[in-house]
Amino acid sequence: MTPILITDPDHIAVQPFRDIKERDLTGREGLFIAEGEVVLNVLLSPASLCEPEAILIAEKRWETLRPLLEQAPHDVPVYLASQEVLNRIAGFDLHRGILAIGRKPEMMSLDLMLDRLGAKPDERRILVVASGIGNHDNMGGIFRNAAAFGAAGVILDAGCCDPFYRKAIRVSVGAVLRTPIVREPTSGEIVTRLQANGYEVLALTPSAQMQLADYRPSPRTAILLGSEGPGLPQAVIDQCLPVGIRMAGGFDSLNVAVTSGIALHQMAFG
Amino acid sequence: MTPILITDPDHIAVQPFRDIKERDLTGREGLFIAEGEVVLNVLLSPASLCEPEAILIAEKRWETLRPLLEQAPHDVPVYLASQEVLNRIAGFDLHRGILAIGRKPEMMSLDLMLDRLGAKPDERRILVVASGIGNHDNMGGIFRNAAAFGAAGVILDAGCCDPFYRKAIRVSVGAVLRTPIVREPTSGEIVTRLQANGYEVLALTPSAQMQLADYRPSPRTAILLGSEGPGLPQAVIDQCLPVGIRMAGGFDSLNVAVTSGIALHQMAFG
Description:
2 copies of one chain form a homodimer.
Chain A: E1 4-5, H1 20-24, E2 31-35, H2 37-43, E3 51-58, H3 62-69, E4 78-81, H4 83-90, E5 98-103, H5 110-118, E6 125-131, H6 136-148, E7 153-156, H7 166-171, E8 181-183, H8 187-196, E9 200-204, E10 210-211, E11 220-226, H9 234-239, E12 241-244, H10 256-269
Parallel strand pairs in A: 1-4, 3-4, 6-7, 6-11, 7-8, 9-11, 9-12, 10-12
Antiparallel strand pairs in A: 2-5, 3-5
Helix pairs in contact in A: 6-10
């Protein structure tokens, strides 16, 4: 792999890296931006479900990154630029000096995901269902925890933001790129299909009678997480086994990513 | 309480609210900025350990906030301003429309905190020790979890950022304002003093043999958290009981605020 030096920020080859912040908001037709060494490491690892398409790094980082970059497929161009040119391409001060364009995996249907999982009936298996999670930090945190505790996949309803948004990928420390993801319109329908496939679906909600610490997971468990403000719709909670996280009096408030970490730890090893 | 309408952003009364973002970086001699309704609610609640000094809100929020503002002490001025004047005072677009100046509690020594806690010897008690936590999001998250799971206090070493930084307070949903806080120079000395007072100190570290899920807490427990990058110094880990959080293979990575949530949940109810 021979890197290509870019001296002109308007060079046609680096157009996909232009004005990252503005374009974060518009989507990229199956592509995404990865930034930083941790995420690039995941993108180039065998565990990644995504394909790298191009890599752009600051010249000064070339020598230290070379061993990592040599893991990239041969047809992935690596561009080098001075910090100044890099900043002008990206449209902001890119301290980390590492960007990549990746291609999202083809969207799987929930049925296909469940079929594939179903091929190994003896394993204990955890899925995460996110409903209406619109905050990219929380989305990234949920994926990070899903990967840390070995969840087999994440299922998003239509109210969720895109986990391939740059910040969500970064907060997930790359977990978004190696986790099977499914999108289905409504959490109600997701719950129905999971239950039909033998999953016990836990709705994490402060209103629950049963406490997480008392719950003993079944071999196939899915945990359903709602956003912090509105929470989960009551009709969906009613479909599930509602489970709460016991807290100290007077301050019943957990961040949803923290909630996912506590619940997944309990499912996996509690 | 009669609100005072401010039409001139240079009015002397609102100088403490000027250019918030720049001044976040410089400290405020015992004062801090609180923003948003959730945090203001805590600041004005009986649980707060901090005193409100002044409140500045957008005119349009006056009617809905009135019942809350009537809980403020009578000598705390409430200023109203149009959104435009408010933005000019704050130096940025203040959508939330709610700011307050608060006074930090007097700094307690660790000995005094432990003395006060020692007065109730039969209660189960959890403390959090933070070492080198420099990220305000993580600091806020740790405080939020400490409050959620009833930790009696948070002890910071010299490597920690200020939890009264605006963003840390916001992320903590106000928990920073109602949690006893102590600062001591080194985590090594903090551990020594806690142990001398009968606390079992757990060092949360991936290198540990013992897993959190297998640990049964003693009546007085402290959990020691280090930053994600460098982690805890080995010499400090050696003073403590090292405990790890078991994870799936190949992705051993948890955010430190999530770690605090999982550990505190386990201490409190595991």
